[in-house]
Amino acid sequence: MSKVCLSVFKHEQGFCICPAHQDDEKSDTPAICKNIKQLIEDRDHFTSNKVLVTLIRAVVDAIAHLECENTTIGDIWKELIISHKKIKEWIGYSRFQDLKNHCIEIIHKQSAKFLDKIYIVGFFLSPLYCQVAVSCKHSLDDVARILLEIAKEWKFSRNEALTIIDQIQHYYSNEAPFNLLKTSSAQNYWLQLPSNKDTAALKRISIALLEVVPHAAGVESLFSIMSAVKTKGQNCMAPNTLHMVSQHIQEKNTFRADFMDCFDSFLLPDELENFDKGVFENGSKVQSICNEAFMDTLFDFEMFDSSTMDSEEVIRQGLDTVEEKWEIHHLL
User: Fold this and answer.
1) 100 and 246 belong to one structural domain
2) Which among 66, 92, 114 is the end of a domain?
């Protein structure tokens, strides 16, 4: 449907000159049946299509952005929120209201596939939206807990883990040196951020997280439900992206079970008060995020609107791993 509507919108002028060419005796334009000719001459048809395109484009643009080879897990919720807001605020003919409601329903349903904590953390690591990520359902303490679990899984040192906790607060509060850059790309921001004792630990884990391939089950399902699986964008992914996809498939069975299960445990407020005392029980877990997918209950849209966007290009930097055994309950 979207391809038909967008094609008609793009080639409207061509459609309109077809009847004139057919009436020209010198033209070899194929005959046009009466019904199609009447449809072309009916301006209300093209006017309605223009209105419909404004609704469809919100979804199509979101899919196109998610298909980009430089898309990271930090971009998923940004695109879903933008698409959701555009559709919800859309005003058009009443006969398209059912389609509008259907689009909103799809966005709500599919957003549930991105409630895994790694996508929330990825959204938090986008500097323009870090406060939006923890504005409603999720808290800064939740994100800190997840990042510690990831740091342990990825063999970060104990000192780095402690440093990450402190740097998260400075990053969230937009304090120096985390307030020196402005860019719409989370990956570019962390790559360009100067490496020093005040940034290195959080920068390292952020870059590693933003390299996790988002072109997996959740994104693929969104493409599928919107009938966009076999698109040119996906079929023309760069070799590096395809290589990362293959790595994701190979690792997901052994990695996801342990890695994602740990995301179900959040610290309660009283547990956080005991952080410095090292009081923490592995058995006590906070309720995991519920699967209701209404996005306006997940994030503050007014805060999202206040974010500004720029774009910059930077050069990718390498990362080294640290081998050291430590336990989270020793830190908390």
Assistant:
1) no
2) 114
- The alpha-helical segments, DSSP class H, found in the chain are 2-10, 12-23, 34-41, 43-67, 76-88, 97-111, 117-124, 130-133, 140-153, 158-172, 186-192, 200-210, 217-225, 232-235, 239-261, 269-273, 301-305, 328-331
Domain boundary among 58, 80, 114: 114
Same structural domain, 254 and 327: yes
Q: Identify the residue whose tokens are 């997840």.
A: 146
Range of the domain at 35: 2-114
- Please indicate, yes or no, whether residues 102 and 152 belong to a single structural domain of this protein: no
The pLDDT tens digits for 126-174 are: 999 999 988 888 899 999 999 999 999 888 888 999 999 999 999 999 9
**Do 52 and 124 belong to one domain?**
no
Cα(29)–Cα(84) distance, integer angstroms: 43
- For tokens 């070799």, what's the residue? 239
231 is a domain residue: no
**Which residues, in sequence order, are CB contacts of 150 under 8 Å at separation 6+?**
118, 121, 205, 209, 259
Is-contact 82 176, C-beta < 8 A? no
pTM above 0.70, yes or no: no
Task: Please name the residue ranges forming H helices in 176-216.
Answer: 186-192, 200-210
